[in-house]
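Extended Data, panel c. Modelled sequence:
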Amino acid sequence: MIRISTIFIAICMVLVAASLGFVLYSVAGISGSESAIVALTALTFLILYNAVSMRLRDRSDVGGQIADLSRGTADLARQVAEFGRRLAAVEGRVTSANSTGADRMQAMAGEINELGVLVKQLAASVASQEDQLAASPVVAAPALPRDDLLQAAAPIPTVTAAPQPVPVAAIARNGSQLLGAVKAAIEDNRLDIYLQPMVTLPQRKVRYYEAVTRLRDERDQILAADDFIGVAEAGGLIGRIDHMVMLRCIQVLRRLMVRNKDVGVFCNVSAATLASPANFTQCLDFLEANRALAPSFVLEFKQATFRNLGPTESDNLAALTQRGYRFSIDHVSDLRIEPRELADRGVRFIKVPASLLLDPRQSAATDIHPSDLSDLLGRYGIDLIAEKIEGERAVVDLLDYDVRFGQGFLFAPPRPLRPEGASATAEVPQTKPQDLNGASNPAPVPSSAMEQPTRTTGNAALARRAVGPS
C-alpha cells in the first residue's frame, strides 16, 4: 500500500518541474516544447534522486534492524546457556542426593540385618539358658577370672576372685575404733580403687569404668565404701579420701587412654566435699591441673545431693562446669527427674537401677513411663545407664526401653587394680554376641590400668605421679 508521504512527494516533484517549465516559457521566452522537455528532465532527476535517497534510507534501517536482531539473538543464546548450566547443576544435585540416599539405605539395611542377627542370637542364648535352668535345679558357679588379672603382690594376698568386703563388726566394735581404722588406712595409703566396667547395649563393649573405693585395715581386711563413708564424713576425713580417690582415678585414666582414647572414668564425690570450701578448693586445684582430661573424667554425685543443693554447692558445681567437667547421678531412688534443670547444671549421665526401671509401679508414680525415660533424657544430652544388672532377662527388657549403657555383676564385678610390677599383656576382652549366655565371666580391667600405687607417707608423692605424664 502506497503511503501518503510518497504521494505528497510525487505531487511536489510534478509541481516543481511544471513550475520550472512555466518560468522558462514565460520569462526566458523559450518555446513551449523546449520548456516541456526541460520540465520533464527536471522531473526525471527529482524522481531518480528520491528513489536513490529512499533506497539508502531503507538500507540503513535494515542494517539497524539486523544489528538489533543480532544483539537479541546473542542475549537469547546467553540465557539458554545459563538455563542449561542451572539444569545441569540441578541434575547433578539430584543424582548426588539419590546416590547418598541409596548409600544410607544400604548402610541402614546392613545395621538392621546385624541387629536382627544379634537379637536372634540373644534369643537363642536366653532360651538355652532357660532350658539349662529348667533341667538342673543347681546353677553352676561362674568361671573365675584369671589369676594374673588380680592383686598378687604383698601386702595384698593372692586371690582368685575380687576380695569381698567384710562386715564392719569384724573390723571395729564401735564408731571410734572404726574412725581410728579409717585414719590409719589413710595415713598408710591403704585406700584401694576397684574398677567396674560400663558396657554398651546390646554390643557389651566396655565404654566407661566406675572407680569403687575400698579400704583395707591393718589386717588387710576389706571395707566397702558404705561401711566407712558415714564415719569418715562425721570425722572430717572425707575430703582427704575424695582427694586421694581423684588422684588415683586420674592416674588410671591416663593409662587407660594410652590404648583407647574413647574410654572414660567415673569418680564418686561426697556431698560433704562439695559443701566444704577447704576440701573443694584442694580438689578444684587438682582438677584444674588436669583440665585436659575433663571430657573423659566424670564426677558422680548422689541424687539426694542434687536435690539439696545450697548456694555453696551450686557455685562449686558451676566452677567445675566452667572447667569442662561433666557430672553423673547415682543412688536414684525414684524417677521424678527434671532433665532440663539437670542438663543446665552439667549432668550428662544418670544411673538408675534396673529393678527400678522395670518396676511396673513406677509408671503410676511418675509423669513419664520408664520406657520413655531414655528418649526424654536424650533430648537434653543425658545418657541413661542401667546399673545393678544381674540377669539376662533384665537385659532383654532394657533393650525395649532403649537403654544404651549397662552396669552390673552380670557383666563384671568391681575388680582391683593390678599391682605395680606385675607383668601381663592381656587386653580387654570384648563380649561377642555368641557369648551372651556366658556373661557371668566378668570383663577384666585393662592391664595398663590395673596398677596399684605403692605406699607413701602422705599424698605428695602420689600427687606428683598422678599429675605427671604416664
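The CA atoms of residues 142 and 438 lie 9 Å apart. This feature is highlighted in the accompanying rendering.
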